[in-house]
Amino acid sequence: MEQPTQDLLQEYENEINLVPVLPGIRFLNCLIDAIVFYILMIGVAALWGMSLATRSLSVYETQEEINSFTGMLYLITFSVMLGYYILFEGGTKGRTLGKLITGTVVVKEDGSPIGFREALIRTLCRLIPFEPFSTFSGKPWHDRFSKTWVIKKPR
């Protein structure tokens, strides 16, 4: 028995439009994700503050303790940032809360969904100093190095 041929119009309608979204939408994504990140950091800081309060640290800390505290703060901040972007973009096939709200998604250059590898590359690129200024050249570094695009979510 012969298999029916696929309707060409159906295939055309399922095709993904790989036109990147406008910079304003990307800025809105960034702004929403920054707000979510700071809310997460407030929660982490509150938990950390409660744990420090139970240790009843004295006012007269040594410079070593202050340096250790600062290093731990940087480590926690980077961990929360890495966790947020990698878990959301990798786990939801390219969407953070900002992208969910604006109806956008990150895809590979061939239009397929991204995985944890691309999410990791995108997130590590966000740590490069002056990376936000790469948007002025057209395609930001975190898209260029991970070979991804941010597009409108297909229906």
Describe the protein.
The protein has 155 residues and is mainly alpha-helical. The chain has one domain. Helix content is 58%, strand content 6%. The protein contains six helices and two strands; from the N terminus they run H-H-H-H-E-H-H-E. It has a two-stranded antiparallel ribbon with strand order 1-2. About 4% of the residues have low confidence.
Topology:
Blueprint lengths: L7 H7 L8 H33 L7 H29 L5 H6 L1 E5 L7 H11 L14 H4 L3 E5 L3
Antiparallel strand pairs: 1-2
Can you give keywords for this protein?
elongated; mainly alpha; 155 residues
What is the gist of this entry?
This protein has 155 residues and is mainly α.
Q: How helix-rich are the residues, as a percent range?
A: 55-70%
Rg, alpha carbons: 21 Å
Number of DSSP E strands: 2
How many structural domains?
Answer: 1
| Order of strands across the main sheet | 1-2
SSE order, as H and E?
HHHHEHHE
Q: What count of helical segments does DSSP give?
A: 6
What separation lies between the terminal Cα atoms?
34 Å
Largest sheet at a glance? 2 strands, antiparallel
Q: What amount of the residues lies in strands?
A: 5-15%
Shape verdict: elongated
What is the residue-mean pLDDT, rounded to a whole number?
Answer: 84
Low-confidence runs (pLDDT<50, min 5 residues)? 8-13
Multimeric state of these chains? single chain
Structural category is: mainly alpha
